[in-house]
Design brief:
By secondary structure, the protein is of the alpha/beta class. It has a single domain, classed as HprK N-terminal domain-like (Udp-n-acetylmuramoylalanyl-d-glutamate--2,6- Diaminopimelate Ligase, Chain: A, domain 1), CATH 3.40.1390. Helices cover about 35% and strands about 15% of the residues. It contains 5 helices and 6 strands. The protein has a 6-stranded mixed beta sheet, with helices on both faces. Helix 2 links the parallel strand 2 and strand 3. The longest helix is centred in the last third of the chain and has 10 residues. The protein is globular and about 35 Å long. The termini are far apart.
């Protein structure tokens, strides 16, 4: 599904990248506020949802080939965060919904979760 369509479902404000939202296909999403979890479990090409607002989010997403970041809970990213995203042409979106609600909407619309490997007990 195109990122533009997903942004409409979650009522996102586009902070950067409006002109390229139709160019990005999204099949998976991962929501986390721990970058160690993102590094361990997010898939390349998946959409990242987070409430963290610093530049490390964009650097982590870039390292994992994540095409776009959605900031949840109305948390506006730092100016430097949006500037870095614009330099690497990574769309940045803002939603006022909780991470739970945003992930639920994306799941309802057919976006798949990044699977966490099962643990043996």
């Amino acid at each position: 599904m195109k990122l533009r369509e997903l942004s409409n479902f979650v009522e996102a404000t586009i902070l950067y990248g409006d002109e390229i939202l139709n160019d990005i296909d999204v099949e998976y999403a991962y929501g986390a506020d721990l970058m160690s979890d993102v590094l361990a479990f997010a898939r390349p090409g998946s959409l990242l949802l987070t409430g963290l607002t610093n530049v490390q989010i964009i650097r982590t997403a870039q390292m994992l080939d994540i095409p776009a970041v959605i900031f949840v809970r109305g948390k506006r990213p730092q100016k430097e965060t949006v500037e870095l995203a614009s330099k690497i042409k990574m769309p940045v979106l803002l939603v006022h919904k909780s991470m739970f609600e945003t992930c639920g909407i994306l799941y309802r619309e057919g976006i798949l979760p990044c699977s966490i490997p099962s643990r043996e007990v």
